[in-house]
Amino acid sequence: MSADSLALLRKNVGQEISVLAEEHFKHDLQDSDRDVLKSAASKISTHVTVGTVVGLGLGALLAFRIRRTRMQMFNAFRAHEKPTQVKFADGREEAIPDVTPYLRPTALGDVAAYTFFGFGGIFLGGETGLLTGSASAGRTITRNPESRERIETAFRRFRADVLRKEADELDKKKGVTELLGL
Q: CB burial class (10 A; 0-12, 13-18, 19+) of residue 165?
């Protein structure tokens, strides 16, 4: 297994592509186009950040409310009169064990609730922020038709160069094991 199998360990491909993107960014676009792209990128970043923070807050709020509801249910169960034995038709009686201590909310349960609701809120908020940020960035880029055309042309040229690099790399490798990185 090669180091290129994990995206985390891939460094050369990302650096080569970022250098190529920087070249297209400098040579194929005007200053106003670069400003539009930077503005669009900052909008996405802002939306994702705000969405993540709001999602974390909502997750924590929901976890707090669920914890409070669990505690209220436990207190109601504890205060309610419970039967202590069961009488069968044949006259015999069996004691019912007290399950109240097993239903008590625990600190571990609280930690789990806050953790999972927090992570869920971060995920949903961040993804929602990414969607709204992408829509906002798309509107920013498409606002000026001339600028949009230059940006699309630069992106097509960049994508074509990336595909040429990938094709060249595929041509260099001989066997299936090299191609798959084994």
A: middle
Q: Which residues are registered as beta bridge partners of 85?
A: 95
76-105: burial string, b at 16+ Cβ within 10 Å, e else: eeeeeeeeeeeeeeeeeeeeeeeeeeeeeb
How much is the pTM? 0.70
CA distance 62 to 60: 5
**Highest-scoring range by mean pLDDT, 16-20, 73-77, 129-133:** 129-133
DSSP of 95-119: EPPP-HHHHS--HHHHHHHHHHHHH
The distance of Cα 48 from the centroid of its chain, to the nearest Å, equals 10
Looking at residue 90, the DSSP 8-state letter turns out to be T
DSSP SS3 for 87: strand
Q: Are 128 and 51 in contact (CB under 8 A)?
A: yes
Backbone phi and psi for residue 62, each to the nearest 5 degrees, phi listed first: -65, -40
pLDDT digits (tens, 9 = 90+) for 32-68: 888 998 999 899 999 999 999 999 999 999 999 999 9
